[in-house]
Amino acid sequence: xxxxYSMLSAIMGTDGLSRLFYMxxxxxxxxxxxxxxxxxxxxxxxxxxxxxxxxxxxxxRPKVSCIITCYSEGMDVxxxxxxxxxxxxxxxxxxxxxxxxxxxxxxxxxxxxRFNVDPLLYPRRHLRPxxxxxxxxxxxxxxxxxxxxxxxxxxALDGDTSFDNNMVSAIVxxxxxxxxxxxxxxxxxRNVWGSWVTAMQALExxxxxxxxxxGLAEWNLVNNVSGAFGAFRRSFLVKIGGWNTHxxxxxxxxxxxKSYFKRHGDLRIPFEPxxxxxxxxxxxxxxxxxxxxxxxxxxxxLYVRKHNHNINPDLLGWRTFLMILVSxxxxxxxxxxxxxxxxxxxLFILPGKTLLFLFALIYLLYLLITMLMFGAMLSMVSDRPxxxxxxxxxxxxxxxxxxxMRCWSAVAMLNEMxxxxxxxxxxxPWWVLKRATRF
Length: 439
What we know:
The chain is α/β, with parallel strands linked by helices. The chain has two domains: 2-48 and 319-434, no CATH class; 60-298, Spore Coat Polysaccharide Biosynthesis Protein SpsA, Chain A. Helix content is 55%, strand content 12%. The chain has 16 helices and nine strands. It has helices at residues 2-12, 14-52, 76-85, 106-114, 138-148, 167-172, 196-217, 234-239, 249-258, 285-306, 313-316, 318-349, 352-381, 385-388, 398-419, 430-434, and strands spanning 64-70, 93-100, 125-127, 130-132, 153-158, 162-163, 182-189, 229-233, 271-279. Strands 1, 2, 3, 4, 5, 6, 7, 8 and 9 form a nine-stranded mixed β-sheet that branches. Helix 1 crosses helix 2, helix 2 (14-52) crosses helix 7 and helix 2 (14-52) packs antiparallel against helix 12. The longest helix is centred in the first third of the chain and has 39 residues, at 14-52. It is globular, with a radius of gyration of 23 Å. The mean pLDDT is 88.
């Protein structure tokens, strides 16, 4: 490494190397600031509209089918079913828990079968369980549920996620607009203070997911309808063939819906911040890193391998196309490599004082942005400000956490590039993935 440093210093000089890194690292902020500003402007617009709008009473009460994918949740699935029974929505809710691999998954199947819906206590709530004896994966469960669903609105839910009791009402009101094919719901971390890892994810969820989607939805640029909590117009979902195989079925379906945006210019995907789901986040660092290894590797698989032919303005429209190029390709695929490579180079090449000063400068800039986002979240977005204010203790550490995540994202994509990591997912068995090796 000393030889490498000597060689580079001889070529550029120590001062030249220092100037190089002074120029390059702040450029990351220049690239990121426009997106941050767009999110903040969207949040301001949403907040102003919400404060001035007059509440409307609607008689739109379609039947809602909730497809609940179950595999190894055990008794936790009863918490999910109970939270759906206790919804304040006055219309009919059809609950379709699909137990994948029911032959060997007896605890979850037994929990579903033992759950009783009292018609007097919970009128207009209907339980339609499906025991899928051979394991086919999450996509297989979703499509099995879709084939049995009778509601106009279909929700895709995880079997270990519970919901606020106004969730269905909040989601459904968006579908009164016929130009809405899908609605994204919001997720919160349920085990916030289970460990420092879950606490950091809780802050990430409210800043990078909840708040960002509020801002992006104002410009019809929601990047993804979460697989753990999303809602769809059944007729549109059937029209495009339901869910597709492989992994990251949520982003895959979102991209397929967006491929209709150019042909049907009035389509939009709203985000409903009042529809809240609660899920348990990975509690240990190793579990968390393995989850993100799959999530971030799936991004490369979908954008580069599976949907490269669909990402064009003729299908998406120019606004959505440019947003995917910026937020999808650059921020999620390219930027992690830039940060990872230059972080390594800086650690091994820059003199100690220069390195310390440069990292301190970048940290303070990212900390300022995080504080701005957190303040905006508490004052304009949070539905639980007393709970969320305690997350402020984590704000000083959050920029370092995000640096770790971006470096790990580069590792995840390398894993996908060279090892086809998406084929190692637990979301589907190997014989299902083997039939989709064309990507």
